[in-house]
């Protein structure tokens, strides 16, 4: 599958697509084509959509590369939902969705890095609230699609239904880690702003609070805690990553022209305390699955077995009905954030 030979006129190309056609990005393009190798374009639209809308197609290709990394098999025989995935013991259904910017709001590529914008990023409530609202829209749209269509399909019935969600809803979306998605799903919000305002008041770090809801610009309330009751029991789990971006390709590829300086934050053993790392890509150890998080629904009709996506650096949050305790695994050495700056190699 040739992703990069243009099939649409230049003025129709997505900004992200046109930006990666430069010669210096060949190594990253080659790696993406490795990720896509074996992907079955069932409706013949993937290449055009990749070039015109980019993020949703990129997310699907990324997910497919994750499935290959795990050694999963994909059954392409049905046109919908997006993926029917097996680990050899059980099969799950996965629908991919992206959270995108609201009409009239800045697009994710509209970053200026100006003083005012950087100053605004010293507080996170605004960014997190926007992310919660856009994530909610995306999740509800796919849950409704499952109820209206997918649940009636023979190959879907009785199987865990997982939404794979990626946020591209605003500039600097990659800063959110798990703050908005955990608030949306469990009404569990880490209030970093409260800590920054009064660090002495919180010697153990930012407080965890229940917000109940967030408010849209028009006054509409978005209720939080989607997984705190049976109302969304058709969704077995959410697979999420805010670092499945072109930066992952830059951090993982061996580019003979550019040298990538990678700034990243990782949870560190033994307690998962976040620490910043700065190094060139050759010394940066990142795999395709780093940054993945799986949030389980304790009220799911068809629960996802935590063993399905279990991996050392993949974060999972689930309720153990035997011990009656919430379990968080994989966060002792997990990727929270990554930013890449490319420099020409010195000859």
Descriptive labels:
26% helix, 347 residues, 8-stranded mixed sheet
Notes on the structure:
With 347 residues, the protein is α+β, with helices and mostly antiparallel strands. The chain has one domain. 26% of the residues lie in helices and 24% in strands. The chain has nine helices and 15 strands. The chain has helices at 15-19, 26-36, 46-52, 55-70, 115-120, 125-148, 179-186, 192-197, 246-252; strands at residues 73-74, 83-86, 91-100, 161-168, 189-190, 208-209, 213-215, 221-223, 237-240, 258-268, 273-280, 293-296, 315-320, 325-329, 335-344. Strands 1-2-3-4-9-12-13-14 form an eight-stranded mixed beta sheet, with helices on both faces. The radius of gyration is 20 Å and the shape is globular.
Give a short summary of the structure.
With 347 residues, the protein is an alpha+beta fold. It has nine helices and 15 strands.
Give the topology.
Elements: H1 15-19, H2 26-36, H3 46-52, H4 55-70, E1 73-74, E2 83-86, E3 91-100, H5 115-120, H6 125-148, E4 161-168, H7 179-186, E5 189-190, H8 192-197, E6 208-209, E7 213-215, E8 221-223, E9 237-240, H9 246-252, E10 258-268, E11 273-280, E12 293-296, E13 315-320, E14 325-329, E15 335-344
Helix pairs in contact: 2-4, 2-9, 3-4, 6-7
Q: Tally of extended strands?
A: 15
What fraction, in percent, of the residue positions are helical?
A: 25-40%
Shape: globular
H/E element order: HHHHEEEHHEHEHEEEEHEEEEEE
Largest sheet: 8 strands, mixed
Rounded average pLDDT:
94
How much β-strand is present in the residues? 15-25%
Distance between the termini: 34 Å
| Subunit organisation of the chains | single chain
- Rg calc: 20 Å
Overall number of structural domains: 1
User: Number of helical segments?
Assistant: 9
Strand order of the largest sheet: 1-2-3-4-9-12-13-14
Structural class: alpha+beta
Low-confidence stretches: none
